[in-house]
Structure prediction request, 202 residues.
Amino acid sequence: MNFPPKIVETAIEEISKLPGIGKKTALRLVLHLLKQENSTTSQLTNALNHLREDVKYCSTCHIISDTTDCTCKTITRDLTTICVVEDTPDVLAIENTAQYRGLYHVLGGIISPIEGIGPSDIKIESLINRVKTSDPKIEEVILALNPTMEGDTTAFYITKKLKEFDVKITTIARGIPIGGELEYADEVTLGRSIMTRTNYDQ
Prediction:
């Protein structure tokens, strides 16, 4: 007898393709689903099917939505500021801080020559068009990209493209995290922390 059966092995293979899910975790998930009522697995299947069929991307800011209209203007936001991020999880992370009330622009990736991703493969041109045609006028573009070589390359490219417009370009601060210890910080992070130091508020 082959174990696990082919039908179970196929399910494990598919689930283990998800990010962060190894074969052991996939096996536990499959065995868990087998113990549930049929309605539970049916609801999961229906939810995944609806996810693929009904979810769209906002045609303006490229955030996941259920409509192609811009969802970032459906609630009260600061319409003069755009925060540029790599992907949707970054939007969720920033929103969870409750410190930002402006608009977003999801690039859908970053420039990475090694992976064959160039400026035309991500949503840079639509960002330029937003800044160019926005009403009210965009006054600030915040580059909230990961502090990697690819992230810095993307930020540099966007900065060059936006130079012709009268817009303030900023980037999120990089430094030592709360609760972190200096001796464990890498030199680049520590150096940036020193260079971007701010006044100490008592």
Residues 64-171 form a domain with the Dna Topoisomerase Vi A Subunit; Chain: A, domain 2 fold (CATH 3.40.1360.10). The chain has seven helices and six strands. The mean pLDDT is 86.
